[in-house]
Structures are given as structure tokens and as C-alpha cells.
Amino acid sequence: MQQAHTETSAAITPAIAPAITPAAVAHAYLAVWNEADSDKRRKQLADGWTDDARYADPLMQASGAEAINAMIGAAQAQFAGHSFRLSGTPDGHGPFVRFSWTLEGAGGVVGGGTDVVLLDADGRVAQVTGFLDSVGA
Amino acid sequence: MQQAHTETSAAITPAIAPAITPAAVAHAYLAVWNEADSDKRRKQLADGWTDDARYADPLMQASGAEAINAMIGAAQAQFAGHSFRLSGTPDGHGPFVRFSWTLEGAGGVVGGGTDVVLLDADGRVAQVTGFLDSVGA
């Protein structure tokens, strides 16, 4: 399909470090959600997310690395013994990455969703918009 | 799941006019893509989209109602005789709406995707991030 004319597409899709693939973004993202140590998560967030990153899904919202770290800790407490796993193949374009995940425990999958991540020009997570694809226990 | 603490969730999920449902957003959105008259599209965009709305999918990007109108016209020219149809059930939370679509012609479905729409506080389309779910002719 022909690309539409726009003077500001650069502002919409800033250059991203070529090493960053949708799969790498998804795996790093899920690693944060599966990291039980708050200090380690804080380090992961400091390295891979912007300080003012924003997160929103149907159940949780948080803004800023510290609030996001606390939010993830609260979610882990809610689903102790469960882990997030990548489902399907991540895709993306420009600064956007999309991937699906499942939340699994000893009893199997209890939920799943699809997250859309906006990366900044340095490839750090600036915004996450999550949706639920299935509802578990 | 317990809502995570955040001082700025209001900034992440501004109030939206209660009349606006994900389904209504999706149907209005697809109506713009299926409107062949550029002037009518311009009116639809002026009514339902912000002046500086941004659109990005793997094939097209545009910023501003005029560029988006031209982009849609170019896509329609590329797929003459085809129309966009809602697939599945739109969902959303806060200012975000997600829905899937197919592009169909006399020969059947030639493609499909999932779009995530960010609405402003007045319920107007401020940003669209599209992904392709299937590749057609």
C-alpha cells in the first residue's frame, strides 16, 4: 500500500535502535512482570522504561516507574504462584510493539491479554496500553 | 484485581462522555474509512477526530485531519471496491478503544487488523495505532 503523505511521520515513528525487536521488547517486558524482587524490578524499569512511563489496562493504571513497580508487585501478590508467558508472535512498527500474553499457574491459564507498547526514541518503554483477551479465575 | 495506587491515573484515563461506547467508536471509525466522498470524510474527521490526530499502522502514517483524510483516500484507491467491516466485539477502558476489522471485496477478505484508538477528553479520536492481523492479496 502506498504510504500517505505526511510532514510529521518522523514525529509519529521516531527511529528506534535497530537491535530492538518486537520479540525482545516483549520478553523484556514480561521479565519485569515476572520479577518478584522489587529492587530488581526497579532496576529493570530504570534501564528499560522511561521515568514517566504510563501504564493502563482495564484493571490497573499507573504513571511513573515507582508507581508501576508497586502496581506490578500488587498484581503479583494477587496472583501468587502465577507467571506471565508470551503468547503468539510479537509484532510492531515504528515505535509501537504489540504482543499477547497469558497468566498461568499450577492450575493452568487464568487469563490473558494483549499489550501495545510505545517506545521512546531510545527504545525505552514510554507507554503501555493493555487489553484483556480472556478472563480467568 | 486491586487498583494500583497512582496520583495521576486521571491524567491517564480522562473522563469520557458516557454515551461513547467502544462499539460506537469502532463503527464511527470504520464509517470514515468506508466513506468515499472526501468532503464527507473531512466533515466526519472534523466532528469525531482531533485536528492534530495521529495515525500509524505498519503501512501508513499520517498526522492531522487533512493528511489522514488524504491517507484514507489513497488507501481506498488502492483497494477500490473493498470495504472495512468490524470483526469481533470492540472493547476498551478509560480513553482507549480496541477493535478488529477486515477488508473485504467481491473476492472475500483480503486483509484484517486490530486498531487501538486513544480518545481525548471529549471522546474524539486523538491517536490510532493499527496492527495487521492477516495479510491478503
In short:
With 137 residues, the first copy, chain A, is an alpha+beta fold. Helix content of chain A is 31%, strand content 40%. In chain A, helix 3 (38-48) packs across helix 4.
List the helices and strands and how they pair.
2 copies of one chain form a homodimer.
Chain A: H1 9-12, H2 22-34, H3 38-48, E1 49-56, E2 61-63, H4 65-78, E3 83-93, E4 96-105, E5 108-119, E6 125-135
Parallel strand pairs in A: 1-6
Antiparallel strand pairs in A: 1-2, 3-4, 4-5, 5-6
Helix pairs in contact in A: 3-4
**Tally of alpha and pi helices of chain A:** 4
Question: What structural class is derived from the secondary structure elements of chain A?
Answer: alpha+beta
Oligomer: homodimer
- Give the low-confidence spans of chain A: 1-12
Q: Largest interface, counted with CB-CB under 8 A?
A: A-B, 42 and 42 residues
- Relative helix content of chain A: 25-40%
Distance between the termini of chain A: 43 Å
For the biggest β-sheet of chain A, the strand order reads 2-1-6-5-4-3
Number of domains of chain A: 1
Main beta sheet of chain A: strand number and arrangement?
Answer: 6 strands, mixed
Proportion of beta-strand residues of chain A: 35-45%
- What is the level-2 CATH architecture name of chain A? Roll
CATH topology category name of chain A: Nuclear Transport Factor 2, Chain: A
Mean pLDDT of chain A: 88
- Overall form of chain A: globular
Strand/helix succession of chain A:
HHHEEHEEEE
C-alpha Rg of chain A (nearest Å) = 15 Å
